[in-house]
């Protein structure tokens, strides 16, 4: 059972939604996120939290969908199918 009292998702004033997640990461990934936060802080000329760095990374680098098939496995396009002759 989840003991958290905060809602899992809520709207933000800027018109977006915020979802709270708890994930377990190896320290190497946390270090990479720290580096990402450092790069983002240098770009924006202000302090950046790891939360902001994660959010920026997710928005700027779209990951391929896990369920998507590679291009060579995609089914043929409908326009490539032969046309049926005759009247319907």
Written overview of the protein:
- With 88 residues, this protein is mostly helical.
- The protein has helices spanning 27-44, 50-60, and strands at residues 9-11, 17-19.
- The protein has a two-stranded antiparallel sheet.
- Helix 1 packs across helix 2.
- The longest helix is centred in the middle third of the chain and has 18 residues, at 27-44.
- It is globular and about 45 Å long.
- The chain starts with 8 loop residues before the first strand and ends in a 28-residue tail after the last helix.
Beta-strand percent range: 5-15%
The description of the largest β-sheet is:
2 strands, antiparallel
- Which sequence of strands runs across the widest sheet? 1-2
Q: Residue-averaged pLDDT, rounded?
A: 76
In short:
With 88 residues, the protein is mainly alpha-helical. The protein is built from 2 helices and 2 strands, in the order ββαα.
Topology, element by element:
Blueprint lengths: L8 E3 L5 E3 L7 H18 L5 H11 L28
Antiparallel strand pairs: 1-2
What structural keywords apply?
mainly alpha; globular; about 90 residues
């Amino acid at each position: 059972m989840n003991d958290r009292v905060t809602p899992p998702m809520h709207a933000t004033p800027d018109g977006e939604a915020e979802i709270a997640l708890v994930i377990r990461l190896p320290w190497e990934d946390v270090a990479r996120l720290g580096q990402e936060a450092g790069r983002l802080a240098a770009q924006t000329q202000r302090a950046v939290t790891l939360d902001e760095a994660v959010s920026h990374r997710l928005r700027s680098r779209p990951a391929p969908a896990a369920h998507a098939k590679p291009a060579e496995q995609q089914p043929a396009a409908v326009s490539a199918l032969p046309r049926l002759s005759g009247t319907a």
